[in-house]
């Protein structure tokens, strides 16, 4: 049986064996083992808490635990003991979920997670939503399942019923959970409670079939006067048994909680790269902050193959807003700016740190590229026929395939903000109207900059090297 004590002993024994020179400095990564979906993002007792799906014993997905770290600025993190382990007889994994601070008792932090039992030839799998509480932010007491399959509408799947996200609004607690209806279509179920104890079925959001086979990791919030639902969509399996892919979508809703009716008004696909399961929190500055897993279920991961003992990273925290065009925008939190050094020289052939914050003003109709090079390999970003793109040529990874293009074409001068962190890149296009997030694994200690001959496209460049924080994984 798995326990928190067992996990911590394993981490202590093996975490000093994972330094391969590819670990990011500004992104949360596991000390050892596998990490994916961020969970339980919250602001509690004056600090940010980030949890995540975690399997300490292998660099592949396995019996899920909850990783836990806290921070005062979302840049410098302190790792805390594993928060949850599948240590009960009727659970094989503690799957994704969210957190909320008790409105009547601000010293109590409550985690909602999926208590999962695997299926076998002898029994069907089962997923139900459970609760755990803490008053010190470190030690959690499990209180068992509070939303079981018995609360689902008739015909809904009890095997695909996961990722509870609690939301407090208008005096009630709503929990949004991903699931599948009686027709096998992805839906988001909503449950409601007055006191965080007894929950009843409230409604569902089917998103017009746009959740495909499953909508995972839902999150719902109000932002700039709009009702927004985030969901990570698993597409149906192909004839070969493999998933046909995934996407992350923001649904703009006409939400009537009194009539329990939710209609989709607009849909926006988020990120054009390696990005999944974003979750948000509202902090004491009234910022809606989001963090996602910088990965995909179909991805190939160099760190796993290199046997360096860990695999996975979360994205940089970003602040969400709704732009004048009605699209969801994301920009890096302002706290990152405090880690900028002096402006770096930015000329062809220049040696640069692998931790960079680059700001371009470009004419997207004039094709150009910039490359950050290692030893006979490089990453590249630029503009091509009005679209922004990213590509990598990395012998160690061979994971990115072809170019990743922005979904929109641009005809007027725009800004690009490109942030690299040893083996991560995040490109914020047009003040965060679009993003491209990805991993790369260049075997080098620094970058060599190369620029295309068409310099007319570059209207202005500002470059900073980032000074790494003393964060521990």
Short description:
3% of the residues lie in helices and 49% in strands.
Tell me about this structure.
The chain has 473 residues and is mainly beta. It folds into two domains: 4-331, 5 Propeller (Tachylectin-2, Chain A); 340-466, Jelly Rolls, CATH 2.60.120.560. It has two helices and 33 strands. The protein has helices spanning 4-14, 302-305, and strands at residues 33-44, 47-55, 65-71, 77-79, 93-101, 109-117, 126-134, 141-147, 161-169, 172-180, 186-193, 200-205, 214-223, 226-234, 246-256, 261-269, 276-282, 288-293, 310-311, 318-322, 328-332, 340-343, 351-352, 355-362, 368-373, 378-384, 387-393, 404-405, 414-421, 424-429, 434-439, 447-451, 458-466. The strands form seven sheets. The protein has a six-stranded antiparallel beta sheet, with no helix packed on it. It is globular and about 65 Å long. It starts with a helix and ends in a 7-residue tail after the last strand. Residues 396-400 have low confidence and may be disordered.
Helix content percent band: under 10%
In CATH terms, the superfamily of the largest domain is: Glycosyl hydrolase domain, family 43
The termini sit apart by: 25 Å
Largest β sheet strand count, sense and barrel closure: 6 strands, antiparallel
